[in-house]
Design goal:
With 728 residues, the protein is α+β, with helices and mostly antiparallel strands. The protein has 24 helices and 19 strands. The site of magnesium ion has 3 residues, from strand 11.
Length: 728
């Protein structure tokens, strides 16, 4: 019975690092070789087509059909030179993964032969069958069909034998069916709102870019061991498993030496990433055993999201070559850290200024504070909504644990910036804001310490932390599409900037000097945020839970309830005002969230039920039979002493019987709960019923994990934590 497990452990143990094929030349030389980037555009497009395409990418100009034909022709030539035979519209439905349908370039030449063809219309638009993707009723309410449309701002790339075209996915009546379309709207909204604010300080600003630098955490497990864990295969996480005696308590994994097999995988991944134009920069061991991280250099938000989606797909395939499976689930193992995706976010201008970094003179510092304070105000206003953007059945296992951001959205500023804000409240409105130590001003000034970027108080317990020239949103799930949270954040900040600009304009209309008008508008905002959303203390502490509630922050922990934030009046008004989502879209997308939540818990319930009944109870019973036989023999051999001699076995037999009965009872109860839940029509109510079932799963796991401790190791059917986590 435990044979499969032992074979898997042996197989895993004997594996060595796979040799990595390193391309010729330096990484900077092969960087982007699989991307139709500006360099390829120059080479493969005629001057007119190139100009029109760049105008479309850089200035949002419409691209007409003739130009699309010209672009397609150049792309085809480039692709064929790389042995490409197919193309696909690549899109991001509401599933946390990407979708692709490959079509070959092959066409009849109508002279009896075949040719390779790729025209502007195939580049620009396609019609996948929208009916098989989650749409939350948009299909029924509006139009059955959807189409994908080329996003020229994210470059086309080659993966294996296929030309990938990044696209948005929308219904024929214009509703977004994916993550990309709303993200792009939010990017435009935040630029449109931020430009007029920047122009108060610098008339040369015409465009503001949202930036994203993600850090991706993940687990690797050996594929032989993975194959012996039906729960990992079906749900991406272990639904049972006793903690390994050695897990992360020695703190020896974080930034530790990278195991050779893993190093080879990372190297391969980095090479593939670089060839695909992803500026991979950092790689390291994470806190939990078998947990790792990598991060590229940040870039434009839409492109960075595409690159993250792309590399998650590449990782999964590449891991197989190295004899691993990648786990992107937020909490694959109980009792050790889960995985997240830190989203480093900022805004920058076409004039090369990062708006979250202090400047060189008092006015640019005031601009920095304007963006800094308004962003915090947006998080104060919509903290619950921001949390809803990262809420999921899987991320729920990670948030609120003592390893991940708490389920309360607050912002960490650091001592230096907190002091600056407090000081600002006390000075006259025309006070200059300077960099500390630079000028010999008197003490009345507000001073920003020059190098707070390197400030050591890097609070790790805050979900939204200021880290010197950006905010780091740490609550995003490791397998999530970053778009959802970035779209919400961009929109929130856009709304706040519009409101701020309106208030400043009123001051200016009174003839107030600019500096004073800005300060006067900022001060009440600072007073509002400083003792509410701003919190520099320990986000894991029990006191914070209480304190946050006192401050009126959202402390909801129930995922289906969190989703409701998306359709509350404030949220609907904001998304409609900024042109990011209509009310109908928000409701439809929330239905998708409820459905996804329900299905995930449902699958886990089924898998755990099956494993409990057909893996665990039989294994425990096998061991129990051995014990029973032993006791029977004892009795026949030592008729007067057997009770004393077998006391230990008898106790074990009873314990096993007790746990087996408990498991059976709890599984039956869970199945009953599922039956009741499945009859509920209303999606929210049904999700709430499944929220309770999620709790029931934890309860079933307990006796199973206790059995694992006492049952003969040789009959235990599935790889244990100590094997999954420490074998390389
Ligand atoms: P950490 O110390 O938080 O683990 P990493 O070096 O792993 O930091 O990742 C930091 C990420 O933040 C990188 O992707 C980096 O390029 C990105 N980043 C740096 N500056 C900015 C910025 N101004 N805006 C957005 N992202 C940024
Ligand atoms: Mg990092």
């Amino acid at each position: 019975m435990g044979q499969q497990r032992f074979d898997a452990v042996q197989t895993a143990f004997k594996k060595h690092a796979v040799e990595v094929e390193v391309p010729k030349g330096r990484p900077s030389e092969y960087f982007g070789e699989l991307v139709f980037n500006r360099e390829k555009m120059q080479k493969y497009l005629d001057a007119k087509t190139l100009q029109a395409l760049l105008d479309c990418i850089d200035n949002g100009k419409h691209l007409d059909r003739n130009v699309a034909d010209g672009v397609a022709k150049g792309m085809k030539q480039w692709a064929i030179e790389h042995g490409v035979t197919h193309c696909c519209h690549w899109f991001q439905p509401l599933t946390d993964t990407t979708a692709e349908k490959h079509d070959s370039f092959m066409e009849y030449d109508w002279k009896g032969g075949m040719i390779e063809e790729f025209e502007g219309k195939s580049l620009a638009q396609q019609e996948p069958d929208a009916s098989s993707f989650p749409s939350g009723g948009i299909r029924a309410t509006f139009e059955a069909r959807g189409y994908t449309a080329w996003d020229p701002t994210s470059p086309v790339f080659i993966l294996d034998d296929c030309l990938f075209i990044p696209t948005v996915f929308i219904s024929y009546t214009g509703e977004s069916l994916d993550y990309k379309a709303p993200l792009k709207k939010s990017i435009k909204a935040v630029s449109d709102a931020a430009v007029p604010v920047c122009q108060l300080f610098d008339p040369n600003v015409t465009h503001v870019q949202a930036n994203l630098g993600w850090e991706q955490e993940y687990f690797l497990v050996d594929d032989a061991l993975y194959a012996a864990r039906p729960d990992l295969i079906a749900t991406g996480r272990t639904l049972m498993g006793h903690a390994s005696s050695k897990n992360q308590q020695m703190d020896d994994h974080y930034f530790g030496q990278i195991p050779t097999r893993v190093q080879a995988f990372m190297k391969d991944l980095e090479i593939q990433g670089h060839r695909l134009g992803i500026p991979m920069k950092t790689r390291h061991n994470e806190v939990a055993p078998n947990q790792f991280e990598f991060a590229p250099i940040f870039g434009e938000c839409n492109l960075a999201v595409d690159q993250n989606m792309l590399i998650m797909g590449v990782m999964k395939k590449l891991a197989r070559k190295h004899g691993f499976r990648v786990l992107l689930h937020e909490k694959p193992f109980e009792g050790i850290n889960g995985s997240g995706k830190h989203n480093n976010w900022s805004l920058s201008t076409n004039t090369g200024v990062i708006l979250y970094a202090p400047g060189k003179d008092p006015m640019s510092n005031l601009q920095f504070l304007t963006f800094f304070v308004n962003t915090l105000e947006a998080v104060r206003r919509h903290g619950a909504l921001l949390k809803a953007s990262i809420a999921s059945a899987t991320n729920a296992h990670r948030l609120g644990g003592h390893e991940a951001p708490p389920a309360i959205i607050s912002a960490f500023l650091g001592r230096a910036m907190s002091d600056v804000l407090r000081k600002l409240l006390t000075v006259p409105d025309d006070t200059d804001i300077v960099i500390a130590g630079k000028q010999a001003y008197d003490l009345g000034l507000v001073e920003i310490p020059e190098i707070f970027i390197d400030n050591t108080d890097r609070n790790r317990t805050s979900p939204f932390a200021f880290t010197g020239n950006r905010f780091e949103f740490r609550a995003v799930g490791s397998k999530a599409n970053c778009s959802a949270s970035m779209c919400t954040l961009n929109t929130m900040v856009a709304e706040q900037l519009l409101d701020f600009k309106e208030a400043v304009d009123k001051e200016l209309a009174k003839g107030t000097e600019l500096k004073v008008a800005v300060m006067r508008t900022l001060k009440p905002i600072i007073a509002r945020i400083i003792d509410t959303v701003c919190f520099d203390g320990n986000g894991y502490s029990a006191e914070w839970q209480k304190e946050a509630q006192k401050r009126g922050l959202d402390v909801e922990r129930c995922v289906p309830k969190m989703f409701l934030e998306n359709v509350k009046p404030d949220a609907v008004e904001m998304f409609e005002r900024l042109g990011v989502f209509s009310r109908e879209e928000l409701h439809a997308r929330n239905d998708v969230k409820f459905e996804t939540y329900i299905k995930l818990v449902q699958i886990e319930g089924r898998v755990l039920g099956d494993l409990a009944i057909n893996h665990i109870i039989p294994a425990a019973t096998t061991y129990q039979s051995t014990l029973l036989k032993n006791v029977a023999m004892m009795k026949s051999l030592f008729p007067t002493q057997w009770e004393e001699l077998s006391a230990h076995e008898v106790a074990l037999i009873k314990k096993i019987a007790g746990y087996n009965a408990e498991i059976k009872m709890k599984v039956d109860a869970m199945v009953e709960k599922r039956k009741v839940a499945n009859r509920i029509e209303d999606l929210y109510e049904k999700a709430m019923a499944y929220y309770e079932i999620a709790d029931a799963l934890t309860a079933i796991r307990k006796p199973i994990d206790l059995l694992e401790e006492i049952v003969d190791d040789t009959v235990w059917p599935m790889p244990k934590y100590r094997e999954l986590l420490w074998i390389r």
